[in-house]
Write a structure and sequence with these properties.
Blueprint: H1 6-13, E1 16-20, E2 24-29, E3 37-40, E4 42-44, E5 51-53, H2 60-79, E6 87-92, H3 98-111, E7 116-121, H4 122-125, E8 135-140, E9 145-151, E10 154-155, E11 161-163, H5 167-178, E12 182-186, E13 189-192, H6 201-211, H7 217-224, E14 236-240, E15 244-248, H8 250-255, H9 270-279, H10 283-290, E16 293-296, H11 305-316, H12 320-323, H13 343-352, H14 356-359, E17 362-363, H15 364-369, H16 380-385
Parallel strand pairs: 1-6, 6-7, 8-16
Antiparallel strand pairs: 1-2, 2-3, 4-5, 7-17, 8-9, 9-10, 9-11, 12-13, 12-15, 14-15
């Protein structure tokens, strides 16, 4: 981009907003209402030439290589800017492993030579999009669902909940339901075939997004009890490679999301996570949290999910373990000004447009002074043994 281009002058003042998820990554600039791109968190392996997940690695060196290749594509293919001397806002989960955070910081500072980096918690900055300080943030992503209460802008970490309930589990459930329903068209007839490649992640995700939804609690209960509903959603066929079809039945479309609400052996589910998180908070915090629930994440985009979640919560309140301890009777959900899959990114965009980016970012000079360490609230070494420069933020 030419140096005299007015657009380049605007981009020079904007900081980069990076939200790397387990399945998809959101990338864009501060002050903008939506990401410039949302792409799979994948890269091409230099050794094998195959597509690999960025966070599937054998050691730190492989993780570093994956991040370098992936971020290089983000900057030079999608954003068309040079990362040197750029400010970066990284939207991260509070439960993100420290090794990922440290490696990402090392890649940004040492390889791409960015000016500064600030890590902001996704559950907190998501509230920036609503202009509220208190909410129960439910993040339903690809691999897991996490629930963290935020009260007056402070995450209540003693009440956090996490379970492997995400779209990965839903996709595996749908794949099992569709197994054996693949057919090949031969002339005017159809013959059953067994071809696992036709039920890969890409195809299953496409079927899930285009044809499946979250049903009502009563219909799900009737189905488990063997009661056939009066009306059923229409079946449809999904064509693969031109001559193969997958028969997606009504029950597959309607009940594949039930796995998120089925209680496991410990009586835990997506619904119980929310109630348990509220119970672990102080009594005076419970009603404000119950009346300010924010559901984010890619899986939260499923049709009917919030309505089903409302029904499940009200139903669970009748059980003895909650009725005698949790004295709330209403649950209210926020509608953020963005699609659920990039609400956290939008919060980071708002954060990057404020003075926080200049006041609390970790600069490259401070990073080098701290022997390539990122200040972290969970690391006692950073809090006690190492002097943290005043220019950095101790998250």
């Amino acid at each position: 981009m030419p140096a005299h281009d007015p657009l380049s002058l605007v981009l020079d003042k904007q900081c980069v907003i990076l939200d790397i998820g387990a399945k998809y990554t959101k990338f864009g600039f501060s002050g903008e209402p939506s990401p410039r791109c949302i792409i799979p968190t994948e890269t091409i392996s230099g050794d094998t030439g195959k597509t690999v997940k960025v966070f599937q690695y054998a050691d730190i060196d492989e993780l570093r290589t994956n991040l370098i290749d992936f971020i290089h594509v983000l900057f030079f293919k999608y954003a068309l800017i040079h990362p040197k001397e750029k400010r970066v806002v990284v939207v991260e989960s509070l439960l993100c492993p420290t090794v990922l955070k440290d490696t990402l910081a090392s890649v940004l500072f040492d390889h791409f030579e960015v000016t500064s980096v600030i890590f902001v918690p996704s559950h907190v900055v998501s509230l920036y999009t609503l202009g509220v300080n208190t909410a129960l943030v439910v993040d339903i992503g690809y691999q897991e669902a996490t629930v963290i209460p935020v009260y007056e802008g402070i995450p209540v970490l003693k009440a956090w909940q996490a379970l492997p309930l995400g779209s990965k589990l839903v996709q595996n459930t749908l794949r099992d339901r569709l197994f054996g329903k693949l057919k090949r068209i031969v002339g005017t007839t159809e013959e059953a075939i067994d071809d696992p490649s036709c039920l890969n992640d890409e195809i299953i995700e496409d079927i899930l997004v285009k044809g499946c939804f979250v049903t009502k609690l009563q219909r799900s209960t009737d189905s488990r009890n063997g009661v056939k509903p009066d009306t059923l959603p229409p079946e449809f066929t999904y064509r693969v490679d031109g001559d193969k079809i997958i028969n997606v039945e009504s029950s597959d479309r309607e009940f594949c999301y039930d796995v998120l609400f089925e209680q496991d052996g410990d009586q835990l589910s997506l619904s119980t996570m929310i109630l348990d998180a509220i119970l672990l908070c102080s009594v005076d915090m419970r009603r404000p949290l119950a009346e300010n629930i924010l559901v984010i994440g890619g899986t939260a985009m499923a049709k009917g999910l919030k309505a089903r979640l409302q029904e499940e919560l009200l139903s669970l309140l009748k059980e003895e373990r909650y009725s005698k301890r949790l004295f709330v009777n209403t649950f209210k959900f926020h509608d953020p000004p963005a699609l659920p899959n990039y609400v956290a990114w939008l919060g980071g965009s708002i954060c990057g447009a404020t003075d926080m980016i200049t006041m609390k970012s970790l600069t490259r000079e401070a990073y080098n002074e701290m022997n390539n360490r990122v200040p972290d609230w969970s690391n006692l070494v950073n809090r006690n043994d190492m002097p943290i420069p005043k220019t950095t933020l101790q998250l």
